[in-house]
Every structure is written in C-alpha cells, then in structure tokens.
User: Fold this.
Amino acid sequence: MKQNHNNVLSLKGMLSVLLLLFLTGCWSSNEIEDLGLSVGLALDEGKESTIENELKEKGGGYNQTGKITLTYQFVKPQGKGSESKGGESQQNPYVSISETGDSIHQMTREFSLRSTRHMYSPHLKVIVISEDLARKYRLEHLLDQFLRDNEIRPSCLVFISKGQASETLESKESGEIPALRLIGISDNEDRTTRILPTMSLAKLEGKMQSGSSFLLQNVISTNGEVKFSGAAVITGKTKKLIGFLNEEELDGLTWMTGQGKGGLVKNFDKETNQPIIYEVKSMKSKITPHINGNNISFDVKIESEGRISENWVVSEENSGKKFLKRAEKAAEEEVNQLVNNVGEKMQKEYQVDFAGFGNRLRIEHPKVWEKVKKDWDQTFSEVPIEYKVNLTIIDSGASSFKK
Assistant:
C-alpha cells in the first residue's frame, strides 16, 4: 500500500514538472514593439519618391524597371509618438512607406533594408489599387504575391481608387488609421444601396478564376478625406479595369441584383413636385432566363418593402391609401429608371455582364449556356431584358396603417 502511495506521489511530481514547461510562454514569439504591423497597402503606377532617388544616388537600389509603387501603412507602437504638454500624441498613429520596383515580393523585402522592425502582415486589412495600374495590368498579376503569401489573410479587402491609391491611406483626422477607416465605411452597407458587398482576396480569386466580369468598390480621396463613389468594372476576359459606374448606376445595379441591405429612394410627387423619401427595409430580385429557339431573353422581378422616412408633401391626405399608392408608384418609377440606366450602360457601353445574368442562364439552362458561354458578353449585349418593380410601403413613418 505504501509503495502504491509513493508511486502516485512520483507521478504527480512528474506531471507538475511537465506543466511548468507549458507555463513558460511562447518561445517563438516576437515583441510587438519589434514588429512592423501592416494594416493597409496601396499600389500605384511606378514613381520613385525623392527619398528613393537620393538613396539610389548614394548606391542604394537594385535592378528593376520601376513599374509599380507600393505603399505600406504600418501602425505605430504605443509610446513612439511625441507628447504634448497635455499628454496627447502630436503624431499620427501610423506611418506609410513607399518602394518602387517591378516585383511585389522584392519590394516588400526592400523594407527590411530601411526599417528595424520585421514586417508582419497577418493584420493587413485593405489593398487599394489605382485606376491607372488596374487598366494597364491584369489583377491576377498585381495580386499574385498576396494570394500566395500564407501570412496575408484571405479576408483582406480589395478596392480600386480613381486617382492615387496611396492618397486613400492618408487622413487629416488626428488619431485615425486610414486603412481601418475604409473597413469602417464598408460596414455601412446596411445604410445605403451605394456600397458594394465587400470583396475579399478569397472572393476575388474565385471571381477571377470564373472568367466572369465583376465590380470592385471605387474609392476617391482628396485632402485626407475619402468617399466610396461608385464601382470599377473589371472584365472577365482580361482581368483589367475597363470603366466605372457612378453612384446612381451602382444604386441601380444593387436593385437589379437585390443585394442591398438598406438604403433610400428619393422621388418627387407628381402633383406637388415635392420630395418623398422611401426607406428600404428589404429587397429581393429574381433574374429569370427564357429560351425561345435560339433566342434568349430575361425578366428581372424586383420587390421591396419599406417606409416613408421623409415627406415634404403638405396635404390633409398625405397618409391616406390614395396618397400612399401614389408614393409607391413614384418610388417604383425611380427604381425602374435606375435599373434601366445601368442595364443600358452594361449592355451597350461596356458590353459585359457583371450582374449575374449568365450565371442564372448556366443554372437554369446548362445546355444553352454551354453553347453561348465562350462569347457570352457579346451575346449578352443584344439580349432583351424586361424589368418589373414592385415596392410596398408598410409604414408611413409617424403612424402605421393597414391596406
């Protein structure tokens, strides 16, 4: 019995020693102050900065053609900024560093020659590509290194910038990190029909492999301020940017696809010419292909429920059924105009399908799709499309009603 008791004590002692080994912490960890935490990245046409030129003149640099300027945005470790008398930091909580070259990976490694901190990219949130660069090079080439890098998370979001991409990573607001600001704006998708569903690296890779045309959110910037403004059109054949949708056209596309989570429709009452605002509570769209011999056509049925959130019409009956029917019809006409306008631009100007019509045809009529998929964009540009919009006002604002 005593022997068994001694064995138990010995076993407990050995387990205690083993547990101590696992309490020593992460032996492969790095101090956060020693890491260059990258949160944003911008890709522009190659233009060497003054600092880069001066370094080259003194023997710095390597063999490259200067196609691309890459700008990384790093978060500053706390305590690195200067302190004012009030104890508040007078410096931005971020720093942006640029490098010019013809290889993304080589440029990234060049930062190791200019910084004491090891670049660490698992927290990279956004990649912004300039319009000029996206028109000139295939997206799959520009993003190849990031898609291969297992340190960069596939949830990283991708945007297009009409103008210098690096300017979208600037801010005049003290304490704001511009890359995180872009993420915050993306989260407002439920407030407007003018923000696209987010496009991550993972989703984008699937889009590029599918061969279909698609959209990326466009960002514009000026004086440290940014705004989401329309969308960039990427053609499936070349993976290059071919043009843009403005904000109203993106609005129409959101209605066409039924992907909106919220937003407004501003219309004007025909009798008084006063504005009435319809606030979206829900929307859905169904794209239905029809085959008649060798002819293809589509019907798009759009439905939505919402409320009157603002009404400038002064009338004793502005909450009655007659008025509400009039308001519904005015909102329907506005949405119908929006979808027709973007449909016209998609079919006649760009002649590419970025709304998913081909995908619906593939799902519902796979044999027909096999015959037309090779030249689908050309076929699509001549296909008749009919739109039917049905909006229902379920709440007049201050008072509810029953139909």
